[in-house]
Amino acid sequence: MSRRVLKFFRRLYAVHPLLLNAFLLHPVLVRRAAFVLAAVALGLSAWSWRDLPGNWYQATQTDLRPLAHVSSWHYQLQKVEIDQIATVDADVVVVDYARAGVPLTRDELARLKVRPGKKQRIVLSYLSVGEAEEKRFYWDAAWKTQPETRPAWVHLENCAWPGAWAVKYWQDGWKQIVYRSDDSYLRRIIEAGFDGVYLDRVDMFDDFPSVKKERPSARQDMIELVADLAQTARAIKPGFLVIPNNGLPLLSDRQFRRAIDGLGMEELLYSEKGTGVRNDPVKIGESLRFLRKLQWDYKPVFTLEYLITKPAIEAARRELEGLKIIAAFPTRALDGGDPTVPVELAKDPGTPEFVATNCTKTNSW
Predict the structure, then answer these.
(1) Which pLDDT belongs to residue 41?
(2) Distance between CA 186 and CA 201 in Å, rounded?
């Protein structure tokens, strides 16, 4: 008799011992109960895997998933020089929509889309959906010094990344700016010629200061924002790619997984508590369980590890390749530089050392 059946009988006995005795006195009933339980278990399993055939077919037998055969990527937001990035041998490149406030031209994007050897590659635009940034076209300088002038969706400045502000991303005012209006950030990105977006700060549903008190539906709000943004983008440009960054717990939601084309993650193995420090093995295992849900959907996982020595980088690269995860090892500043060049970590925004020196738990995330 299977363990599930025994567990069922134990629970049955807890409800009514006489009822269990009745079952034990009638072997036919036992067999039927076991059959029913097995059928239910099989049905639930089949239901949970119902997307598998379609995902397999699209990823392996069609051209509908251009990320299916990607094996390398490059992520650079600062010091973007087109000629330099064009020489990077990577299948996917993530850059900013603009340099010093000036959008990249279609000609510049066309050059980025050709990798060494004249092969085509995918170019994605960075787009933060959980934070507003002072350097963006939508930002009013008065908002920083005059709180009374700020829109309702502007919340708190992130000490870990000066100039970035947490937003109440569920509010319509923010959604209009990001993807709903005719002059939205998303539409500008599409019209510029990008192949997709790399959505940052999707994890704000969990990191947002006091979010659970203010917005109990924060998790579902983020799922719906990403799904709505993806649908909006693909209505304008079919096949437009959407790759969120972080927000792993959202992968347990089928709607979220179906809306996205892959997922990026920072610090899967190292540097949550200190640059180059190995993360808690329990936390790593939990993260991998979430990521496998996406891999089972035949969608790729990208990682960024902020390591500062060549041996550490090579060891992490081998480990991540074994996990079928596509890794990149940039500087924390994402400036295309050599991550092994020494820097003063306590003065390098975004590092655990910078946060420990300059910030508190309530003003950084």
Answers:
(1) 47
(2) 16
